[in-house]
Specification:
Layout (H helix, E strand, L loop, with lengths): L5 H13 L4 H7 L7 H13 L3 E6 L2 E6 L3 H17 L3 H10 L5 H16 L1
Antiparallel strand pairs: 1-2
Helix pairs in contact: 1-3
């Protein structure tokens, strides 16, 4: 799966949120400053070429729907991110945030509890 540009990712976040639709629908849902319609249309076409979207022709327009779930993209993105920046170590990732005081001891304890509860099930 290709990595998305920031512009493509912003469009996909809106498309996932709306669960598909027309370009005008996506534009309405996007935060300010909204891109021009033609820019968003080009971005959506690129997303379709990359395999992130599928389209259905309805009259003289297209309805787009995600082909990839947001959760699947997040997993692949994080795997790549951790591999590129933290030598495939999630421990290094957590340590980075702990050292930078972006995660508290309480947060870490919650994470430990989640891990332990998952193992118990």
């Amino acid at each position: 799966m290709e990595k998305l540009t920031q512009q493509e990712e912003e469009a996909m976040l809106t498309i996932w949120e709306t669960e598909g639709g027309f370009i005008k629908d996506f534009l309405e849902q996007m935060p300010e400053p909204k891109p021009p319609y033609t820019t968003l249309a080009s971005t959506v076409k690129n997303l379709e070429k990359k395999g992130f979207l599928e389209s259905e022709k309805l009259g003289n327009t297209y309805r787009y729907a995600p082909r990839i779930k947001a959760e699947d993209y997040k997993k692949r993105f994080m795997k790549s991110f951790v591999g590129d920046y933290f030598k495939n170590s999630y421990k290094e990732l957590v340590a980075f945030f702990a050292k930078d005081q972006k995660i508290s001891a309480e947060d870490l304890q919650e994470i430990i509890n989640m891990i332990e509860n998952k193992k118990a099930k």
